[in-house]
Amino acid sequence: MSADGIAAPPGASPLAAIRAVPRAGWHVATVAATHRETPNASRIELDVDGWPGNAAGQHLDVRLTAPDAYTATRSYSIASSGDSTRVVLAVDKLPDGEVSPFLVDDLRAGDQLEVHGPLGAFFVWRPAVESGDDRPVQLIAGGSGVVPLYAMAHAHADASDPTPFRLLYSVRTPRDVYFADEWRALAAASAPLQVDLVYTRQAPDDWPAPPGRITREALEAAVIPAAERPRVYVCGSTGFVERVADWLVGLGHAPGDIRTERYGGT
Amino acid sequence: MTGHLDGNALAGPLADFFSFDITTTTGRCNACGTVAEFARAMVYMSGAGTVVRCATCDHVLAVLVDTGERAWIDLAGVSAIEVRR
């Protein structure tokens, strides 16, 4: 991989050029646009100087520095992928957060941020032509955990990848759905995608199920059966991810087929 | 920070120390012998530092302390690592 000018080492596998992810580095990002994604979250588009591109599912770290040199660093999943230096985030405001309230409420076009990335090669999806793996893919999101899964579904559609995709998305209310218009467009695209929603606090009036936390039975009904050996990506709060991962293993999914990413408190 | 995260969160803090991605690197726990990607480990972050625990037996695999000027990594709980190139 030579994304940052460093040649592949001698003897590297030919696959390394395909599998490797660009080296992480610190970059200056300029805010190109922000807008409300949900009542509690903002979509933030960044132009990142020197960004080497990123795979679908990767994250970056944002570092804020106060006038007294105090710094705070937080990780955010990237909603976009590919070679572009335009990087899209969708950030949920945490009530006691140190960083997210600033990003959601105060950030304006033209502001600059320090970002570190792209980060992580584990929670990543690549098109079947690159990965050689055409097993179906099950995405499972809790709340803002949908962001890296959106990047995967978008990359899947962009590549017109024939891999069957299914998303199970647990969200508080209809207003809290991230990328609501985009999901409709992706579901209508040529790459196969089925979207299932679970509302935990308030459902639309005509919704067939009362709002409530996802159950093991609801999960079983809405995910690709273990017999089809899907690759499963789960992202959400720590409690959500651990509950879902335990159920998946109980339903016969191999632990090695389940990739998880937890997000934390502040 | 409430509760724990997982090893995906190590990607940034350790990117400056290793030339490979730590999250897809597998490590062997020297307490229970489990071999797993670091992304699957449990990660506890606080102001004092970061503690990485085995997801199978809770043994401490690694401790990271970063003051900005200096960083210190203890990998005493890991008996071997395998890097995928």
From TrEMBL, chain B:
It holds the Pfam family DUF6510. This is DUF6510 family protein. It comes from Agromyces aurantiacus.
